[in-house]
TrEMBL record:
This is DNA-binding NarL/FixJ family response regulator. Residues 3-119 form the Response regulatory domain. Residues 147-212 form the HTH luxR-type domain. Keywords: DNA-binding, Phosphoprotein, Transcription, Transcription regulation. The modification 4-aspartylphosphate is found at D54. It holds the Pfam family Response_reg.
């Protein structure tokens, strides 16, 4: 079972998400919380694989909660929830360690699939969304220069894999595209995360966009 914690200060939103996710046989909503402090407590208590985290909440907000959860041992995948498809606050959440983001208007059938994607350790972020987020960044040019400097030390094959991460591809998809074994791709990704000082695949994918490695 994919254990999920839902976090939103609107009880109706929590109830809606619980109903949708509860309809899937392989997903269980083990807890819900109404602010960031409750979210961290729920993660420690229930050890979910995925957290759906509203960003704008009174008290301890979602961004602070994501930062705290990222510091826990073996943290779950945290997916930011927003009412906007390109929210500047989302950029900060992704930098803090979120595995991606979803708009609250995501269709129910898509939401279930995307929770499964997050549980498998993959990025929940479309290339289009990533491009919009990078474009919105106030210091986008400086970040682009920094990203290119970071990626200069990668091998040609590592650069290819990083570009695929920027497209949101899974390890299996990358392996098929680059004619590599899936285990080899996994090794490349793990090594790159260390080289690039990225907490997860999502941060690496955004870095690929900032460095101009992803075709638009």
């Amino acid at each position: 079972m994919i254990r999920v914690v839902v976090v939103d200060d609107e009880p109706m939103v929590c109830a809606h998400l619980r109903t949708i996710l509860g309809s899937a046989e392989d997903i269980e909503v083990v807890a819900q919380a109404q602010d960031g402090a409750e979210a961290v407590e729920a993660v420690v208590r229930h050890r979910p694989r995925v957290v759906l985290m509203d960003l704008r909440m009174p008290g301890v907000d979602g961004l602070t909660a994501i930062e705290r959860i990222a510091k826990l041992p073996d943290p779950p995948a945290v997916v930011a929830l927003t009412t906007f498809d390109a929210d500047t606050y989302v950029i900060r959440a992704l930098r803090a360690g979120a595995a991606g983001f979803l708009v609250k208007s995501t269709p129910p059938e898509d939401l279930i699939g995307l929770v499964r994607v997050a549980a498998d350790g993959h990025t929940v972020l479309s290339p289009e969304a990533a491009q919009r987020l990078v474009a919105m960044s106030a210091d986008g040019r400086r970040r682009g220069d920094d990203a290119r400097r970071k990626t200069e030390g990668l091998t040609e094959r590592e650069t290819d894999v990083l570009a695929c991460l920027g497209e949101g591809l899974s390890n299996a998809d990358i392996a098929a595209r680059l004619h590599l074994a899936e285990a080899t791709v996994k090794s490349y990704v793990s090594r790159m995360l260390v080289k690039l000082d990225c907490a997860n695949r999502t941060q690496a994918g955004l870095l690929a966009h900032e460095a101009g490695l992803v075709k638009r």
